[in-house]
Specification:
By secondary structure, the chain is an all-beta fold. It has no helices and 3 strands.
Length: 70
């Protein structure tokens, strides 16, 4: 799954934007802002995990990465 805004993974996580910031959890990855389609929370994830991410707020997913500027 590409980090294209508007795309949704099988767990209902929607890509908001690629922040361009370096990931703290995965070398060579960037932080992508995701929005959960179930609870509406926003969080960061590394670009390599977007396809499999679950919401850390309502789906017991791993904690998100910091979003730049927030």
């Amino acid at each position: 799954m590409a980090s294209i805004p508007g795309t949704k993974n099988k767990h209902g996580q929607i890509v908001v934007r690629d922040t361009g910031a370096a990931s703290i959890s995965h070398p060579y990855a960037r932080v992508v802002e995701l929005k959960c389609s179930e609870c509406g929370k926003f969080y960061g994830a590394n670009s390599c995990d977007v396809h499999e991410r679950r919401c850390p707020h309502c789906q017991h997913g791993r904690p998100g990465e910091p979003l730049p500027g927030l």
